[in-house]
Amino acid sequence: MLVWQRWFPVMDKLQQVIHNKQGASLIEMLVAMPLLCFLLLTIGTAFLLLMKFYSVYLGDLELQQQLRFAVLSMTRDIAAAKTVEIGKDKLEITTERHLEQEKQILYELNTRPTINRLMKDNQPLTGESRVAAISITKFNCKKIKNRIINIEIEGVNENTNKKFSLETAVVILGDGS
Amino acid sequence: MRDDGFFLVEVMVLSAIAFAIVALVSLYGVSGKTIEHTTIQITAGFLAQKQLAYIKGDTAVLQKYPNGIIPWQDTEESVPIEKNGVSYTVNTTVAAATNDDVLKKVVVVVSWEENRMNKHVSMATLVSCHG
Fold first, then answer.
1. What pLDDT, on the 0 to 100 scale, is given for residue A118?
2. Measured between CB atoms, does B41 come within 8 Å of chain A?
3. Mean pLDDT rounded to a whole number for chain A
4. Is residue B14 part of a domain?
5. Å between A116 CA and nearest CA of chain B
6. pLDDT < 50: residue spans in chain A
């Protein structure tokens, strides 16, 4: 036996366990197995719970990001608009560049049986996510006074039913007629 | 019958496992609160932006209130504003910018109560009285 092992009784006992050739008795096994199962179940459940939390948080974060991105995209386009036309679940923006090309930027709420997407020029602005099913439940735009457009958008994470709404206003810096 | 009890190593391993589980659970609790806080801050930021847009779009509001305090969206809408389950209070003040009578400094402060603490987001901009 090494000198340091004499100073540590724990290591001495560990040596005894390692070199124990008697094995465990049935009683010891009957006690040890449920304890082991309990420990494994606890760790497994905790792991699954944490994964669920992670997935929920990731989905809610995605909802925030998509709505914020959509609102920022609209505010940027409206600020540079020459004309803005507001319809039901629809927003048509014409900037100077688009006026020359006789085109418009079209924001539209696309209602589908599965999830509602906000589309920009027929391309999905929201709802394209692998981590959560983000559906837009409300998309309202209205003109306040002459040059101010109020935007209200609400979305829901279909997996968790968490709702999030954003409301802002933007000034049309162009003509805004 | 054994009288030895547990080894120190066994106790340490079990403690480490328990500590790791508790730490992970608390970490997720913290991240949940952080997401909630972010939601509130984003909403507050957009509300402040809305108020600023209202003033920028109609600069006559700057002259309308000589005390320099502009109500939310210039309406009698009841404050605080309820959004995403949180009530926000918006305070808007207007002051003359230094050495300039035309430019006004508009400060919008959106405040709310979170975990029994008062928090706020503020946005400031310069607005010309002539639009």
1. 93
2. no
3. 85
4. yes
5. 20
6. none
| B53 inside 8 A of chain A by CB | yes
Give yes or no for a contact between A99 and A82, defined as CB atoms under 8 angstroms apart.
yes
For the beta carbon of residue B123, count every other beta carbon within 10 angstroms: 17
Contact call for B42 and A64, based on CB within 8 A: yes
Reported in sequence order, the residue ranges of chain A that DSSP labels E, i.e. its strands, are: 81-87, 90-95, 105-110, 117-120, 123-124, 134-144, 148-157, 162-171
Residue pLDDT, tens place only, A67-105? 999 999 999 999 988 889 998 888 999 888 777 777 889
Q: How many CB pairs under 8 A join A and B?
A: 78
A41 falls within a domain: no
**Which single residue is written with the structure tokens 């019958």?**
B1
B56 near A CB under 8 A: yes
* Domain contains B91: yes
The reply to whether B72 falls in a domain is yes
Do the domain assignments include residue A10?
Answer: no
DSSP per residue, B63-107: HH-TTSEEPGGGS---SSEEETTEEEEEEEEEEEPTT-SSEEEEE
Residue of A nearest to B47 (CA): A168
Residue A68, domain extent: 51-171
Question: In this structure, is residue B108 part of a structural domain?
Answer: yes
In a domain, A129, yes or no: yes
pLDDT for residue A7: 62
Between chains, do B8 and A64 touch, taking CB under 8 Å as contact? no
How many distinct structural domains can be found in chain B?
A: 1
CA distance A114 to chain B (A): 24
Give tens-digit pLDDT for B50-101: 999 988 888 888 888 877 888 887 776 657 888 888 999 998 998 887 777 7
**Number of domains composing chain A:** 1
